[in-house]
């Protein structure tokens, strides 16, 4: 009989602790372990492994391992920016979310089962077996790889998640991991047109594996990713983008990869054009033409980031999970620099940002740009840096509570007028040239309150920090104002985990 996936002895007990602890006790007991010396990295690893092994993926994208895994990288980076026991707060949020999904009847009970890796012919030969024996091993392996790729794409076309899982386990063992990832992204990127998470889940999981998560767990962490990306038949979502690539011969010409100071004006022009755009279908056209005119891939990614920040500031959305304009551009810029990802994948990464439903819908709820309103900002009284930081914080803390009886569709929520108070104060902070790091630190503490958005608030905060550092003057400051806007929208929706953790910390 099949058995559930087992982890190495050094982490299995901690994984079981997260799986088996009742939801009412998980924050208290996790804090005890962190205070007793369990390393933060180990706790986050165990949290991701628990939610991967013991929670299922629901038909939508909320629940199961998707958002805890997608938030891993952002949580690990925020921990590094916090001090003292504040560093425990993001970890407690992550563990509580994983534990919630493990015990949620929508996604549990569930077990990720051990089973054999199979090639296209249904065999389970390992790489070592391929290469052993009769001298024909390399040829056989090559045919096996091509057959496995073909079989995977057929499985995707039919929505055969279980078969795709078997095949990918074999491919991880017999191909360079980056090639396997690129194959997965060749399916994930087009499906972004159905749901932003088809792109975000594999991309953010891979970033966690590349930068934080122990690679010995690659295969198990990626199994739900493969199953998620494979489900539902593939649709050809971007024929117009493919035509654009062909018409401009973007795969045939030599494109500059790295940016430099000589591109500042071009990056700014494209970024501002995207910011001012009302029809998102124009964005890839402008970007493709900029590449033809000599702009680098990195420069185009930076311009897209500037444009995304400007569009976010124009957005009227009050949905605290509507942050993909920023989080999606952040992971795309990282992928553009990833060695081994194919040029076709990188071009699609760059030219399909606008296609995700949660991004595309923004064009129907925007103010005229640019935002914030310069006159409203100019009318604010002068404050010192400390006074202004406190004013921004209080404006976030004092956002009016949401009347959930009036919310029938989260995606249609509009930001309350009080959000503009926060945004204008943040813009004043920027205009006065106050310390960016102090601003980011304050937002980092504020974001730890959130357990409503299933890691969206954490991912957005990390995105604005990274985009600030990766974007040149004078446009980098827009990202900080975006961070304040997102914090004002998400604050107070649900803070139960934070409030319990704070009470426990103060009681000690």
List keywords for this structure.
about 500 residues; mainly alpha; 4 domains; 26 helices
What's a concise summary of this model?
This protein is mostly helical and about 500 residues long. The chain is about 60% helix and about 0% strand.
SSE series = HHHHHHHHHHHHHHHHHHHHHHHHHH
Strand content: under 5%
Count up the helices.
Answer: 26
Helix content bin? 55-70%
Major sheet: size, sense and barrel closure? none
Please tell me about this protein's structure:
61% of the residues lie in helices and 0% in strands. With 508 residues, it is mostly helical. Helix 5 crosses helix 24 and helix 14 (264-275) runs parallel beside helix 16 (297-314).
Write the layout of secondary structure elements.
Blueprint: H1 12-20, H2 26-35, H3 40-54, H4 66-70, H5 72-81, H6 88-103, H7 127-131, H8 137-158, H9 161-174, H10 177-191, H11 196-211, H12 218-230, H13 239-247, H14 264-275, H15 282-292, H16 297-314, H17 324-336, H18 343-351, H19 357-360, H20 374-378, H21 385-397, H22 418-431, H23 436-447, H24 456-470, H25 477-490, H26 496-507
